Amino acid sequence: MNPIDLVTKRVSPYAAEKRSTTYLALNENPFPFPEELLQEALKRMQIDNLRIYYDSPSEELVEAILQYVGADFITERNVSIGNGADEIIYVMMTIFDRVFFFPPTYSCYKIFAQALNVKYIELPLEEDLHIPEVDLKEGDLVFIPNPNNPTGHLFEREEIEYILKKGAFLALDEAYYEFSKVTYLELLKKYDNIAILRTFSKAFSLAAQRIGYIISSEKFIDTYNRVRLPYNVSYLSQLLAKTALDHVKIFQERTEFIVQERERMKDSLKAMGYSLTDSFANFVFVFIEKKKRDRLIKDLSKKGITIRSFDEGVRISVGTEEQNNMILKELEVFR
Ligand SMILES: Cc1ncc(COP(=O)(O)O)c(C=O)c1O
Fold it and tell me: Which overall architecture, per CATH, does domain 35-246 show?
């Protein structure tokens, strides 16, 4: 078979859906990037930097990330950036022999592993959503989102350390960190086989700009920087990310609102009799069996509402108050 057909056969497709009016399927931030910060970034922008191959990461962005992260045990040599956390995930996969993940988990782990033709092993989470027992060795790379996507639940520290003690390299994907405020960053003090991944896509309303960052040992960051593309993140994306970090309070207040809305949605859905995970991200996860789920997705889509379906249930991103009320109303009628 020719290489193009081989890859097509191997790779599961991205969901290239047309946007519905109420799109709650990708865990985006319902707040637009603040207009005044966009203006500030444009004022700060130096036109000549568009002409050159601009540093990626720039020193000033790394400084801002270090300040935001606020850990005295990391320096600029422990930080790098990617074209979204997705690029970091993609690049990391090329470095190791085998990749492990535990479904239900972030769907791109499998999509990227298939695209790159790296050996991957999927082991489902246990029924109570804990990490299963797993045989690991040096050369293995394990992906764990914490909070998990799509369930939004948090793993316990012992589960994370269980992987680290086995000698595998752990990519701890904290894409939703701001909504849980739980981080295992300090494990970097104890282990050198861990990387923390974060993103500007969720809490900072910059998904379209494609920018995320990685924190790890100096040695691993050096390796990552050798493997990734040079100049991987644009000047404008870095400038917007830096401007966001300079005004972090705005985003923290918005995050608080989203968290309150998440809790309101969880409480309301529970009161309606739905079974939910305890999500600490910017979405809720409702267990619904397949037949009912398919009917729900179809009903909602007729009304211009899109949520995401998984084998175990549905994931609904927290939207604006109005959108959340709308989906709650629909689910009340549906039950
Ligand atoms: C767990 C997890 N990691 C990474 C990403 C991708 O982040 P980015 O937009 O920075 O590529 C997502 C996006 O939904 C995610 O859910």
Answer: 3-Layer(aba) Sandwich (3.40)
**What is the rounded CA–CA span in Å between residue 254 and residue 315?**
21
152 within ligand 1 shell (Cβ under 6 A): no
pLDDT at 27: 97
Q: Which residues are registered as beta bridge partners of 287?
A: 275, 313
Dmax (CA) of the chain: 59
Q: What is the mean pLDDT of the chain?
A: 97
pLDDT at 130: 98
Question: Which value, to the nearest 10 degrees, does the dihedral of the CA atoms of residues 230, 232, 238, 239 take?
Answer: 80
Task: Tell whether ligand 1 has an atom less than 6 A from the beta carbon of residue 178.
Answer: no
Q: In this predicted structure, what is the pLDDT of residue 1?
A: 83
pLDDT tens-place string over residues 243-254: 999 999 999 999
- Domain ranges, ordered by start, for the chain: 15-32+249-334, 35-246
Measured in degrees and rounded to the nearest 5, phi and psi for residue 164 equal: -65, -40
Question: From the CB of 313, is ligand 1 less than 6 Å away?
Answer: no
The hierarchical CATH code for the domain 15-32+249-334 is 3.90.1150.10
Is ligand 1 within 6 A of the CB of residue 279? no
What phi and psi values does residue 142 have, to the nearest 5 degrees?
-115, 135
Share of the chain above pLDDT 70, in %: 100
Distance 212 CA to ligand 1 centre (A): 9
From atom 3 of ligand 1, which residue's Cα is the shortest distance away?
A: 175
Q: What confidence score (pLDDT) does residue 327 get?
A: 97
The pLDDT score that the predictor gives to residue 12 is: 79
Confidence class of residue 223 from pLDDT cuts 50, 70 and 90?
Answer: very high
212 within ligand 1 shell (Cβ under 6 A): yes
Quick one: which of 175, 183, 187 has its CA closest to 148? 175
DSSP-derived pairing of the beta strands 283-287 and 275-276: antiparallel
- Ligand 1 atom having least distance to the Cα of 82: 10
Q: What percent of the chain has pLDDT over 90?
A: 93
Residue that the structure tokens 């705005």 belong to: 250
* Phi, psi of 303, deg, nearest 5: -95, 10
